[in-house]
Amino acid sequence: MLCQQGPGMNSNKTRTSFKRCLVGEFFSAENVAEYTAFVNRHLFMCGIWVVVLVLLIYTQIRILAAHIKKVTPNAATLMVNHENGVFVDVRSESLFSKGHIANSRNVSAQEIKEGKINLIANNKDNPVILVGKDKMDSDCFNCARILKKLGYTKVYTLEGGITQWASDNLPLSNKK
Prior knowledge:
Blueprint: H1 11-26, H2 29-41, H3 43-66, E1 69-71, H4 73-82, E2 86-89, H5 93-98, E3 105-106, H6 109-114, E4 128-131, H7 138-149, E5 155-158, H8 161-167
Parallel strand pairs: 1-5, 2-3, 2-4, 4-5
């Protein structure tokens, strides 16, 4: 049974008692017995749920601990124009040739993982803005982590990747 507000109760007092009531009911002996029975009946599903939850928490902690900043297309353009920054497109060469940010350098994620970064070797203290496919591109994030470990001091990822760049109607080039 849910707690209900009685006549003449003020709203602050009601909210506090309502929260206490919900928490109390949520962890009552009867409900805890139901939760236990549910878990016993659906052990595999609950196990999968726990594994997924742990993986999501691990991923979020890993992202937060990496200290990789995302920059908007406008902020990235300012860094390139005023701080001698460079766009590094981590997509494959075939995707790069279909359209990329003008003057960006194509160093694929695989090349960065193998340490083949000659095209950007002299940019350790300049802003390096990594460009991926979209905002969910894990290769871009992983490359940023690798470059940080290699001593690059100003590593950023382009928020939304090339997809966001194109949807903002910013120029793309097909030239190598």
